[in-house]
């Protein structure tokens, strides 16, 4: 019986895939989602065949970029907690969350189109983000720096609201002020 799990990529293939994703993020941000895939391949320093071997369609590339951005956002939590006190780690992560939402905002129509044909680009992203928020809040609560009467779901909703009303570079300063107000409201008072 054949194993249905995909084989792990060789190291060089993984590096090429990562270069393509990084180039796609840059090119989509600079030129929009209609950027020619050949330009993304060139920017990544790979051939078009390598790009298409990894991502057969533009939609597959957009979905992979989105999933990669979610993974990077959530994977940042352990390093932030290692490098900063919990409350500062949470504050730093909320800035990364803004970056993530700003990037996602530019992909919103494409992601909706992908979802409309039956794919679920969002997959487990909401659960992953909630787990990241929970980890950060638990660390803050253990350090005594955060109120314990607020749920991670509430914090996630507040972050989404700030991001949705303040997405984009021209609103970044306002979004950061709103994040600071929100985080200050979460601070444990003695």
From TrEMBL:
Residues 14-73 form the HTH tetR-type domain. InterPro entries: Homeodomain-like_sf, HTH-type_TetR-like_transc_reg, HTH_TetR, Tet_transcr_reg_TetR-rel_C_sf, TetR_SbtR-like_C. Residues 36-55 bind DNA. It holds the Pfam family TetR_N. Keywords: DNA-binding, Transcription, Transcription regulation. This is TetR/AcrR family transcriptional regulator. The lineage of its organism: Bacteria, Bacillati, Actinomycetota, Actinomycetes, Kitasatosporales.
């Amino acid at each position: 019986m054949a194993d249905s799990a995909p084989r792990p990529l060789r190291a060089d293939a993984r590096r090429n895939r990562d270069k393509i994703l990084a180039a796609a993020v840059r090119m989509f941000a600079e030129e929009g989602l209609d950027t020619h895939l050949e330009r993304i391949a060139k920017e990544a320093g790979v051939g078009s065949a390598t790009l298409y071997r990894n991502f057969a369609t533009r939609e597959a590339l957009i979905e992979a970029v989105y999933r990669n951005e979610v993974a990077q956002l959530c994977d940042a939590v352990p390093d932030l907690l290692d490098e900063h006190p919990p409350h500062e780690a949470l504050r730093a992560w909320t800035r990364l969350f803004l970056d993530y939402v700003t990037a996602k905002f530019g992909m919103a129509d494409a992601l909706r189109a992908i979802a409309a044909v039956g794919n679920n680009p969002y997959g487990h992203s909401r659960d992953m983000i909630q787990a990241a928020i929970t980890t950060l809040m638990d660390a803050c609560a253990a350090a005594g720096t955060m109120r314990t009467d607020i749920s991670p779901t509430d914090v996630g909703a507040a972050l989404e609201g700030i991001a949705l009303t303040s997405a984009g570079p021209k609103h970044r300063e306002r979004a950061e002020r709103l994040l600071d107000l929100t985080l200050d409201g979460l601070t444990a008072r003695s």
